[in-house]
Amino acid sequence: GARSAVDRNKQIYTYATGTLTPQRLRSTLDFLSTHAEFKPGLIEIEGWPDFRTLSIEEMRALRALAIEYHSELWLTAHTSHKDFVNKEGVPDYIARLGELVSVLVTLEPQADHVKLKFVKTHRVPPPVDAHLEFDPKTLLVRWR
After folding, report:
1. What 3-state class would DSSP assign to 120?
2. What is the mean pLDDT of the chain?
3. Residues with Cβ < 8 Å from 114, sequence gap 6 or more?
């Protein structure tokens, strides 16, 4: 099925903390493209970058890589309840990236689930009636 197709077509790379840069990611993607004929449709990066210190130039470089490789680029930001947030619940250090971020989803912890809220979507207003939640027990996303 779909899961086995993903497993057969994925590449996983691990970098020591503090060593991943947009240039190093480019080098890895260039190597995969040239020597393994592998061009990812999705690039998912966990634990990097630190959005508090990420420069606009680095974010532009990451976005340019995704566009060049015709890939989706998924990044996660770990936030704190102490962060100053705007009316959408987005910390200022992420909101400052503006148009460099195409889709933005916030996770709002509840008693028995995590509510997913679309703050920004590709060139259209985010849906206000998307009642999606993540169940940490089953690891499934469900419509509620």
Report:
1. strand
2. 91
3. 107, 108, 133, 134, 136
